[in-house]
Specification:
- Keywords: Iron, Metal-binding, Oxidoreductase.
- This is 1-aminocyclopropane-1-carboxylate oxidase-like protein 1-like.
- The structure is a single chain.
- By secondary structure, the protein is an alpha+beta fold.
- The protein has a single domain, classed as B-lactam Antibiotic, Isopenicillin N Synthase, Chain (Jelly Rolls), CATH 2.60.120.330.
- The chain is 28% helix and 17% strand.
- The strands form 4 sheets. A 5-stranded antiparallel beta sheet has the order 3-4-5-11-7. It has a 4-stranded antiparallel beta sheet with strand order 6-10-8-9, with no helix packed on it.
- Helix 3 packs across helix 6 and helix 4 packs across helix 6.
- The radius of gyration is 20 Å and the shape is globular.
- The two termini are 32 Å apart.
Length: 355
């Protein structure tokens, strides 16, 4: 049985019917529905109630990268702030990160243009073949998730190989490549700072291959007629080394901090998951909204397709007799397979790899 109480065969039939439209959640909205389908209903849970910390944006760590390459003292201060934010929160806000405001605005417009493109054009790119350089669908875990999320997504591999422009939709072709170049530069800097925050050589995480691959996700959250019944994105922790997130002005992102959900303002954020629990891989979610659409762009750094079979485990330099490994060694391929198979069920995939 699914959470709707229907026989599983009926639920699978409904999922296939939704998938076969190749229109995603936006297709439902365009059809003029006023009640969301039961497939999207999320059961209420006490732990998901809003927190009284919801509007305390001032307590969220802010890291200003201005003059980081001009003054070693400033760089060290930034490293210390990043270490504290990563150990305590698992995310932080970035200011003066070097990406022009015009580029940030254009990538949001590009994502919106694609998702609001003529449906027949989008249908040509709708697929669940994740080996393609660019693909679009709704709910990557459509057939395994206990409840669907109110969003559509496109995925684009920007590194290690720059995509062929002909593989990208015209609506966001140029800005995807340009944005990817800026994000890669920022990501390499962040990995240097994270390495220093761990007491390692600045190139340590980069040399491990953490910045070899870059995947861009363009999320589109249509206006939802019944936002209290569903989620834009279920509780999850990311499945990569580092995520830089750009939100539009609508917000909606929340992070779990001290067992309470708090709102995160629309600025880039970061998540790290290979430091033997020294840095947090924060659990987060996105609320559905009656206003919309909401746009976000997530840039995920990973080992790259060519290195998916490379083993990864707790960093040896961080281990000792008093700090033994907490996770077993695995490959990115095994981790991604498990993450995608288990679906967004609210539990971190990391728990599966605990020793």
């Amino acid at each position: 049985m699914g959470i709707t109480g229907k026989p599983e065969c009926d639920r699978v039939s409904e999922l296939k019917s939704f998938d076969n439209t190749k229109a995603g959640v936006k297709g439902l909205v365009d059809a003029g529905l006023t009640k969301i389908p039961p497939l999207f209903h999320h059961p209420p849970h006490k732990s998901d109630e809003p927190s009284n910390l919801g509007n305390t944006q001032h307590i969220i760590p802010v890291i200003d990268l201005a003059d980081i390459d001009q003054d070693p003292i400033i760089r060290q201060e930034i490293v210390e702030k990043l270490r504290d934010a990563s150990e305590t929160w698992g995310f932080f806000q970035l200011l003066n990160h070097g990406i022009p405001a015009s580029v940030l605005e254009e990538i949001k417009h590009g994502v919106c243009r694609f998702h609001e493109e003529d449906m027949e054009i989008k249908r040509e790119m709708y697929t669940r073949d994740y080996t393609k350089p660019f693909l679009y669908n709704s709910n990557f875990d459509l057939y395994t998730s206990p409840a669907l999320n109110w969003r559509d997504t496109f995925m684009c591999h920007l590194a290690p190989n720059t995509p062929n422009p002909q593989d990208l939709p015209e609506a966001c072709r140029d800005i995807l490549v340009e944005y990817g170049e800026h994000i890669m530069k920022l990501g390499i800097l962040l990995f240097e700072l994270l390495s220093e925050a761990l007491g390692l050589n600045p190139n340590h995480l980069k040399d491990m291959g953490c910045a070899d691959g870059l995947l861009a996700l363009g999320h589109y959250y249509p206006a939802c007629p019944e936002p209290d019944l569903t989620m834009g994105a279920s509780k999850q922790s990311d499945n990569d080394f580092l995520t830089v997130l750009l939100q539009d002005h609508n917000g909606g992102l929340q992070a779990l901090y001290q067992d309470k959900w708090i709102h995160i303002p629309p600025v880039p954020g970061a998540l790290v998951l290979i430091t033997n629990d020294k840095f947090k891989s924060v659990e987060h979610r996105v609320l559905a909204n009656i206003d919309g659409p909401k746009i976000s762009v997530a840039s995920l750094f990973n080992s790259g397709l060519e290195s998916f079979s490379k083993p990864y485990g707790p960093i040896n330099e961080l281990l000792s007799e008093h700090n033994p490994p907490k996770y077993r060694t695995t490959t990115f391929a095994e981790y991604i397979h498990y993450h995608n198979t288990k679906c967004l069920d609210g539990n971190s995939a990391l728990l599966h790899f605990r020793i």
